[in-house]
Amino acid sequence: MSCSGNLIWDVRKRAIGCTDPYAVRTNYLGRREFVQRLKLEAVLNVHDGCVNTISWNETGEYILSGSDDTNLVITNPYNRKVKTTIRSGHRANVFSAKFMPHTNDQQIVSCSGDGIIFYTHTEKSQEINRQCQFTCHYGTAYEIMTVPNDPYTFLSCGEDGTVRWFDLRMKTSCTKEDCKDDILINCRRAATSISICPLVPYYLAVGCSDSSVRIYDRRMLGTRATGNYTGRGTTGMCVRFAPAHLSTKSCRVTSLCYSEDGQEVLVSYSSDYIYLFNPKDDQARELKGPSEERREELRQPPVKRLRLRGDWSDTGPRARPESERERDGEQSPNVSLMQRMSDMLSRWFEEASEAQSSRARPQTRPRGKTALLSFTSHVSSVFPPGGAEAAGRVISDQSSGVSEASPDTTETVPSTSAPSLGTSSGNSGGSSSTPPGPGRTGTAEPVLSLHYSTEGTTTSTIKLDFTDECFHEHCSACSVFHRRSAAARIQELFRRRKERREMEESETQNIRRPSVKMMYKGHRNSRTMIKESCFWGNNFVMSGSDCGHIFIWDRHTGEHLMLLEADNHVVNCLQPHPYDPILASSGIDYNIKLWSPLEQSPSFNRVLAEEVIARNELMLEETRNTITVPASFMLRMLASLNHIRTDRVEGDRSEGSGQENEDEQ
């Protein structure tokens, strides 16, 4: 550690009444007084974008961070100075970056929203480093995991459902198209988080978008590159965990963390809570399949609210539940323009849904002019209501071939295809709009209905039907939509068959199914897909939150012990120092914050904490059935409505002209 670092550390030791740094870890970190005296010590303004990943080096002397600005930055937290800023070569938001062990902090691996992994050497030129890239993942790569004491290999996971194992002794780059050489595990659903047991590193925990956490013994696994890839989902699996109420749902895992002794695993779920389990436990062996009612719900999940991308009004310390906003009125100064647009969009669909449910469903398929807005998302195998928000995406406009980088970090934004006119697909149970009755006039508004489909492993479709006149029109775009829907259904059919076989195989194998040991709640995890939870010492569990606070609980009882306001919007990353009583945090703000126990006395405001927790619970329920769509969704919907109205006016004119001719005859 640097001289300045030692001086600062000496001051900190005196402030907390300790002179031995190891005594701090063994005697002080375990006391609740420690976390209740935490105070903001420093703010490191080292990025020009949301900071999505932070990690300490092995000695705790430096912090490595990655951001929406695509830079990797190495900072000394003690003297607050930047050691190195690296232009990473990433073209999308950086989500994970780690120092390779035992490389003198000179070798870094990182991944980003476009799925590309870079292997960077801090002492080599930018041109050489940019050649060392792996383009094997398709879709977002969420996390990089290094192996303790191994300077040569690392693992990654991503939206394509694969966990890949790379060995830098074999290759330092790979740009092969549709590469499968380094797949270690194919989960067949998005693999969103991974963690390696620190004491027994061949145990690998994988969190997926189907609410499951699976632990594998890597000694039984291999890749095509090593010549022993099996491809079977249960090979090497020794543990499968899911909370009972989530076993038939699709709740994404945003964070996995082993305890220091490897005896427990902490798992954080999107739109739900944090759970602790013991991998050696086997008290929940029976995981029932979804009921018929649940299968129907999965086929047509509820969509109660739509949020426009860029609307962060429901995040941060000053965010309020919808019930409070309605009480205060829309003219409240806290209501942003983006929030009002989101509210208006949701009201449109609520009214359309009410109108749709009040009409009798026809027995035969109605004919109508239909505008389809299809949004394909590579975010989730089942685009989960409230949970389909990953950090930073690249939006691809398929109609124009234009690609634009997302300016907002941690939101998942579905890519969009241009609206097409044609017959609605039967993918979502058919159109429920009714043909115009005899009493309809030419000035009546088009009927709007919403269909929400989750068929397929990596795609979801929001389909809007605008039905006015009773005619039928086909187009090439619609036939393409039909083909894609059919392909998605076939893909989903095969995936479910494999899943059933996997479950049947797991029943006959010695795969443990632990039960929940402890639950931690009060925070809110729905807006971002990189929200971390972690242990601090032996007695504390921590998490970021959409309310902009850091939450700290008693690990053994689940009691809420501390609340720290740490971001104007969302706290995503929490990383305790490996030795010193320092906590690093980051989120939507463009900085890294450092926290230390510098308060003179415990400062936990329990009344404020209870207010925040109550609001979070209300807002978590609101966002469970909320999905985020780009602004182009609203613009294209308005354009489609306008197009239909224009066509109707022209049609009315032509019909009127024809009627006049008939009267004259």
UniProtKB/TrEMBL annotation:
Alphabetized SMART domains for the sequence: WD40 (SM00320)
Stretches with biased composition (Basic and acidic residues): 284-299, 308-330
WD repeat positions: 44-74, 564-596
Keyword terms: Repeat, WD repeat
Pfam families: WD40 (PF00400)
Cited PROSITE patterns: IQ (PS50096), WD_REPEATS_2 (PS50082)
InterPro entries, sorted: DCAF8, WD40/YVTN_repeat-like_dom_sf, WD40_repeat_dom_sf, WD40_rpt
A GO cellular component annotation in the UniProt record: Cul4-RING E3 ubiquitin ligase complex
Listed Low complexity bias regions: 419-434
Feature: compositional bias, Polar residues: 396-418
Region Disordered: start-end pairs: 284-336, 388-445
Residue ranges crossing the lipid bilayer per the database entry: none
GO BP terms: positive regulation of transcription by RNA polymerase II
Protein known as: Ddb1 and cul4 associated factor 6
Annotated organism of origin: Cyprinus carpio
Lineage: Eukaryota, Metazoa, Chordata, Craniata, Vertebrata
